[in-house]
């Protein structure tokens, strides 16, 4: 699904990414983890084709960068970020905004078909958001808005879905509700998720693999139990931590000195 070999990104004599190697396979559901400034956003920009690496080889969905029109590639990738929220402040209903995702527009310019509306309603139901379908988007809570954005991304039936810190700014109940919905989505193995966060406790049971960044370097990448260990996370966060597992979800605590 994603093949990144020896990728570096350098700006003004500073490495934002250095010698990144990362490979994901179909059926795997990944978390891209790292503290603020670790390089997560830069790596996402490379994967989405918005930032060309200084060196290295990039291949996404079997398309080699430099040999394929990246505008066409992006049509196969769903991307959700809280930054998209500012573009959707109109009076459209949640359902209409989900439907608009089929054409990657921010408004409905053509009358949607019955099938389009039924599919949009299905994705809202998948995210436990049926009750907000007829509500204006600008009246929704932040957690409800995130569900709309995810459902909207699914309308284009992407092969790869990237969720960039979807829980940022949510209170505890809203965060857990959204994580439950996302965890259900990970069960669909014909679509790969890349979930980006700097909070290890957001890694729910459905995620199988973790890629851990620190200051532009890939510290570890692989099956989540092999990456989320005391030793690896202590190295990444530069504080002593202890990892426990509860229902296949990591609980991270700082060790007392």
Shape label: globular
Strand order of the largest sheet: 6-7-8-3-9-10
- The Cα radius of gyration reads 19 Å
Mean pLDDT: 89
Strand fraction equals 25-35%
What about the largest sheet? 6 strands, mixed
Task: Provide a descriptive summary of the structure in words.
- The protein is α/β, with parallel strands linked by helices and 257 residues long.
- The chain is built from eight helices and twelve strands.
- It has helices spanning 40-47, 70-74, 94-100, 114-126, 142-154, 172-185, 224-227, 230-237; strands at residues 2-11, 14-24, 30-33, 55-60, 63-64, 77-81, 160-164, 192-197, 209-214, 217-223, 241-246, 249-254.
- The strands form three sheets. The protein has a six-stranded mixed beta sheet with strand order 6-7-8-3-9-10.
Topology of this structure?
Elements: E1 2-11, E2 14-24, E3 30-33, H1 40-47, E4 55-60, E5 63-64, H2 70-74, E6 77-81, H3 94-100, H4 114-126, H5 142-154, E7 160-164, H6 172-185, E8 192-197, E9 209-214, E10 217-223, H7 224-227, H8 230-237, E11 241-246, E12 249-254
Parallel strand pairs: 3-8, 3-9, 6-7, 7-8
Antiparallel strand pairs: 1-2, 1-4, 4-5, 9-10, 11-12
Helix pairs in contact: 3-4, 3-5, 4-5, 5-6
């Amino acid at each position: 699904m994603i093949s990144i070999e020896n990728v570096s990104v350098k700006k003004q004599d500073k490495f934002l990414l250095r010698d990144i190697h990362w490979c994901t396979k179909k059926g795997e559901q990944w978390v891209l983890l790292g503290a603020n400034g670790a390089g997560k956003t830069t790596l996402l920009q490379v994967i989405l084709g918005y930032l060309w690496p200084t060196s290295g080889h990039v291949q996404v969905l079997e398309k080699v960068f430099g040999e394929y029109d990246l505008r066409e590639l992006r049509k196969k990738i769903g991307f959700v970020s809280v930054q998209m929220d500012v573009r959707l402040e109109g009076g459209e209903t949640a359902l209409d905004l989900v439907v608009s995702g089929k054409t990657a527009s921010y408004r409905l310019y053509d009358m949607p078909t019955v099938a389009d509306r039924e599919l949009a309603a299905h994705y809202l139901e998948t995210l436990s958001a049926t009750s907000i379908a007829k509500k204006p988007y600008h009246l929704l809570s932040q957690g409800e808005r995130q569900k709309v954005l995810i459902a909207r991304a699914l309308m284009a039936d992407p092969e790869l879905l990237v969720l960039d810190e979807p829980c940022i700014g949510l209170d505890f109940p809203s965060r857990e509700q959204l994580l439950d919905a996302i965890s259900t989505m990970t069960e669909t193995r014909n679509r790969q998720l890349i979930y980006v966060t700097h909070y290890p406790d957001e890694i729910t049971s459905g995620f199988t693999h973790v890629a851990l960044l620190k200051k532009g370097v890939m510290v570890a990448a692989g099956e989540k139990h092999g990456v989320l260990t005391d030793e690896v996370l202590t190295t990444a966060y530069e504080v002593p931590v202890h990892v426990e597992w509860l229902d296949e979800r990591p609980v991270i605590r700082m060790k007392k000195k």
